[in-house]
Design goal:
Two copies of one chain form a homodimer. By secondary structure, chain A is of the alpha+beta class. Chain A has a single domain (9-113), classed as Orthogonal Bundle (Arc Repressor Mutant, subunit A). The first copy, chain A, is 63% helix and 13% strand. Chain A contains seven helices and three strands. Chain A has helices at residues 5-11, 13-21, 26-36, 41-47, 53-65, 87-90, 93-114, and strands at residues 38-40, 69-74, 80-85. A three-stranded antiparallel β-sheet of chain A has the order 1-3-2. In chain A, strand 2 and strand 3 form a beta hairpin. In chain A, helix 1 crosses helix 2 (13-21). The relative contact order of chain A is 0.12. Chains A and B meet through helix 1, helix 2, helix 3 and helix 7 of A and helix 1, helix 2 and helix 6 of B. The structure holds a DNA duplex.
DNA sequence: CTGTATCCTAGGGGATACTG
DNA sequence: CAGTATCCCCTAGGATACAG
C-alpha cells in the first residue's frame, strides 16, 4: 500500500518538509547562521549554551544531510570547521523572518490578554 | 542590545515560540484551518488520516490552550464542534506561506541534485 | 578546537478499544 | 459525532566523560 505518504503529501505541503525543520534546535541553528553567515562549532555552541555538544553535532550532521548547511573542514592545528548556509538553506530565511514577526505579535497578544 | 540573541536561547524569539508549533502536527492543523476556515473534528481527522483521534484531540487542546485556535461547541444531537483560527492564529498564516514557498524550492533543489 | 561514546529519561506519538 | 481511556514503543534530547 502507498501508506502515510499519499494523503498528507498531496493535501498539505507543510507535512512534506516538517521532518526537516522539526525539533528544538534546527531553526535556531539556521537562524544563527543566517545572522553570522559563517560560524565555527565553538561559536555555535556559545550562541546556544543549552545544547549539548553531542546534540549540536547530531543536529549539524542532520541539517547537512538535508542539504541546508555546509560544513567546511580546514585541516589545521588546532582544527577549524566552519558552518554556513547552503543556497537552499539561505532560502529558508524568509520563513524565519515571518516566524520572528509572528513571535512578536504572539508575545504582545499574550501580554494583552493578561490585562 | 535588545535584539541580540547571541547570549542565550531565552532571548531568541524563535527559540521562545518554538515550543508552540513544535511537533509533527500543529502546523499541519493550522494549515488546514487556514485553508478551510472552519472544520469539524471529523473533517480534520479526514484531512489527516494518519493522526489518531487521541492525538488529534490532544493537539487541538494544546493549540487552543496556546490561543491559536478556537473551539466552538454546538449542543445538538448529534454533537457538533467547530474549530477555527483565532486572530493570533490567523496571523500565523504568513509563516505557513513562507514555509510552503520554501518547500517547493527545496523539492526542486532535491530533484535537481539527483541529476 | 571539534567532536565521540555512553547512558538515561520524559514525553511525543502510534494502536486499539470504548463512550455519551 | 466527537471524543476518552489505555497501553506501549521509540526517539529526541539532556548529562557526563573521553579523544584526536
Amino acid at each position: 500500500m502507498k501508506n502515510d505518504y499519499t494523503d498528507n503529501i498531496e493535501s498539505c505541503p507543510i507535512a512534506k518538509v516538517q521532518k526537516v525543520i522539526r525539533g528544538k534546535w534546527p531553526m535556531v541553528i539556521i537562524y544563527h547562521l543566517s545572522e553570522s553567515h559563517v560560524l565555527r562549532f565553538s561559536e555555535l555552541k556559545r550562541k546556544m549554551p543549552q545544547i549539548t555538544e553531542a546534540n549540536l553535532t547530531k543536529e549539524l550532521r542532520t541539517l547537512e544531510a538535508y542539504g541546508l548547511i555546509h560544513r567546511e573542514v580546514y585541516r589545521e592545528v588546532p582544527p577549524r570547521v566552519e558552518y554556513s548556509l547552503t543556497a537552499i538553506g539561505t532560502k529558508f530565511i524568509p520563513v524565519l523572518e515571518a516566524l520572528e514577526t509572528w513571535a512578536l505579535e504572539y508575545e504582545a497578544a499574550q501580554i494583552e490578554s493578561q490585562s
